[in-house]
Amino acid sequence: MTRVAFVTGGTRGIGKAICERLKADGMKVAAGYSGNDEAAKATADELGIMVVKGNVGVWDDCVRAAKEVEAELGPIDVLINNAGITRDGFFHKMTQEQWGEVIRVNMDSVFNMTRQVIEGMRDKGWGRIVNISSINGQKGQVGQTNYSAAKAGMIGFTKALALENAKKGVTVNCICPGYIDTDMVSAVPENVLAGIIAGIPVGRLGKGEEIADMVSFLSGERAGFVTGSTLTLNGGQYMAA
Ligand code: CAA
């Protein structure tokens, strides 16, 4: 059976690597994106996948995006909540905008998108939801009270939703990547990033493909017994229990 996967934030960075991998696994894949039309077109052409524009922090955009994917590819069997942004800054200097944007795009998005697909998955008796959280949701990070709060929120969401749907053939898991070689990480000030890399036992940034491999397993037929898990993929930077 050909599964349909929707990857939010799927046209760049980790999301793009996930799309490529799920397509190679034989799925029909659609990638969501919010602003960068040029990158979206390039990814659509390169990978031969559908792309859908919309802001995952906005409910109506998610309703429309899910409908568009379903109309073109069929009901969504696999949802990867990957879209995320940073608006880093010390909390004592943080604005309401920095806080609100990050909570909407990284946290509200998980409700907005998952709510579109969960009933269909339950009715079908099969579904895979993978939430891309972060090492910084596990350990905290200076300059990221907003991001760490949202990413930690995804972990709790994952566990509760996994419990609710375990008997329905729907698994819900969470991956916490460490620092991966993406545009988001390149935006960290150079001296700060050098210090972070020095603290990664494996001695380098991670690669999008390394996250995509784990997503591939969790999204597949053989992962039915893995649910409610938080998987830590960070080169040894933080060893969560
Ligand atoms: N712990 C404690 N204090 C620190 C600190 C740290 N790690 N880093 C800096 N400080 C102190 C400085 O020493 C300085 O103190 P003084 O004023 O007494 O000298 C003070 O904080 C201000 O430092 P800056 O001038 O550097 O502050 P800034 O406001 O310009 O920048 C920052 C602060 C926004 C936190 C900046 O350092 C930064 O962007 N850090 C990177 C945060 C980060 O790792 N983001 C991850 C993005 S990637 C991602 O999120 C993906 C993922 O999932 C992993």
Automatic annotation (TrEMBL):
Which of UniProt's keywords are assigned here?
Oxidoreductase
Annotated Ketoreductase domain residues: 3-178
Report the EC number(s), separated by commas if there are several. 1.1.1.36
Drop me one GO molecular function for this one: acetoacetyl-CoA reductase activity
Annotated InterPro entries = Acetoacetyl-CoA_reductase (IPR011283), KR_dom (IPR057326), NAD(P)-bd_dom_sf (IPR036291), Sc_DH/Rdtase_CS (IPR020904), SDR (IPR050259), SDR_fam (IPR002347)
NCBIfam families recorded:
AcAcCoA_reduct, PRK12824.1, PRK12826.1-2
Family (UniProt):
Belongs to the short-chain dehydrogenases/reductases (SDR) family.
Task: Quote the protein name from its UniProt record.
Answer: Acetoacetyl-CoA reductase
Source taxonomy: Bacteria, Pseudomonadati, Pseudomonadota, Alphaproteobacteria, Caulobacterales
